[in-house]
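Sample intake sheet
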Amino acid sequence: MRNSSYAVGLAYMALCAAAVAMSRPAAEFDPSTVHYPVAPLPAEAPIDDAVAWFAAIKPFCNTVEVETALAQRQAPPPGFQGAGYHAACLALGGKIERARGVLAELSRDDQWRAAGIVFDVAHPVADAGDDRSAGPIMALVVDFWPNHHMALYHAGASEYALGDIDAARRHLAAFVSLYQVEDGWRGNARKILTEIGGAAP
């Protein structure tokens, strides 16, 4: 009887572990689309530390408070995670060139990974339709991660909405060449390209 109860308990624990694993969200982007070398995460910058730093400062990442908050608070953790969240805070506060400077100081191997953090932070802004804020941030991401298809899409769509036709054409043409899934994203990009006289494969 005791052995039977023990076996039932183990089976229940295994089922719980499987349920937890299945409930985890899948990664939004396929890392195989990245054409840069992938290095292991640096030990000196655990991502939890960077996330905690950003959670504390995020309420101040706006045009009025960002400069003062960054000057008065603890510096971000070292490594590309800290740099990514530092750049994201600056970008949310409209300090695009300062954010660019933070990313530019990283090694090339880390620049695109930090830019990915900026994208993750800014993506809700783009999805909310704030083209004036999202466009420059997404263009910044593309500068450091040129084949990030969703950053290309959001940059181009925002630039189109704001009337920057040349930039919209460039980013959306790159998007449709990289993103081959025939869905709403690609359909909308092709529609815009047709309207502005860009290549729409």
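Comment: The two ends are 68 Å apart (CA to CA). Residues 176 and 182 are 10 Å apart (CA to CA).
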